[in-house]
Amino acid sequence: MRDGLKDKTIGVLWGGLSREREISFRSGKNIAEALKRLGYRVVMVDPAETMDFSTFDVGFIALHGFFGEDGCVQALLEKAGKPYTGSGVSASVLCMNKLSTKLMFQQHGIPTAAFRFFLEPLAALPSDYTFPVIVKPVSEGSSVGVSIADTVQELSDATTALCKQYGGFLLEEFVSGVELTIGIIEDPTPKALPILELRPHNRFYDFDAKYTPGKTDFILPADISDADTTVCQALAVKTYNTFGCKGMSRVDMILSPTKGPYVLEVNTLPGMTDTSDLPAQAKEAGYTFDQLVELILRQAIL
User: Fold this and answer.
1) pTM here?
2) Catalytic residue annotation
3) If residue 217 lies in a helix (H) or strand (E), which one and from where to where?
4) Which domains does the chain have, with CATH numbers?
5) For residue 219, which phi and psi values (nearest 5 degrees)?
6) Which of 178, 232, 237, 173 is nearest to 205 (CA)?
7) CB-based contact 16:24 (threshold 8 Å)
8) In terms of CB atoms within 10 Å, which of 79, 141, 223, 234 comes out highest?
9) Per-residue pLDDT tens for 3-36?
10) Share of the chain above pLDDT 90, in %
11) Nearest residue to 61 via CA among 7, 97, 101, 18
12) What is the CA 207 to chain-centroid distance, rounded?
């Protein structure tokens, strides 16, 4: 595989335009260092500073959130004739938009929590919901803007803020259970990595819990039964294939003790920081970080 890339320059796209810019720098730095250890030529490209993609042959996308995960940079790379890592435009668009994601879940029989989309703040909870509920922006990553509302006042405050910043929001049933995330890689076909159980010290696995060392206990492999493991891993691969993802992704779930797994969302560009989930799961499966990076890179030219 490396013979086909040995004369090519790999452009690590990092930084970007989203609120996850600093996380992207951390992911990009780790990826670039791995590529250099593997003997690749590397250039760093921050789309917030330049859209000139002529300096590299293959793009390794380490962007998160707006412009990175939503199909925008993928479309520009395709227009420039540059192969790139990760999912294509369609899968990126669908998975970044939580409403589109939930509608796809419904259409393809993928279990997910009940939801509704609103364009105006809520002054009362809809009659078919009970507190607590989840409110979240439609297009953000890393749990940015996600909160739990326990009262009408909290619901009003959170939805007012979301409408002001994003123009609308998703209301979601709160499902109690074990928080799980399942990485998918292709070696050479899609396979589920060992399941990671997340026990955040915060109320849920929010941005702070994700990126602050010590704020979450990671149980790897997850402390769930073999039967549940098999069901959840199969569901993760089904979800990955349903959206047409490529290269790698991470499927987040809640495992209810009475109702089984509910898929929350699909992350097409998982973080690659020192505290990120995908590298930890790959390590548990026997892949070094460098091997993971090279596997992801391989998919860009297949």
Assistant:
1) 0.91
2) 20, 142, 211, 250, 252, 265, 267, 271
3) strand 216-219
4) 2-85 (3.40.50.20), 93-110+176-299 (3.30.470.20), 115-173 (3.30.1490.20)
5) -105, 110
6) 178
7) yes
8) 141
9) 578 789 999 999 999 888 999 999 999 999 999 9
10) 85
11) 18
12) 12
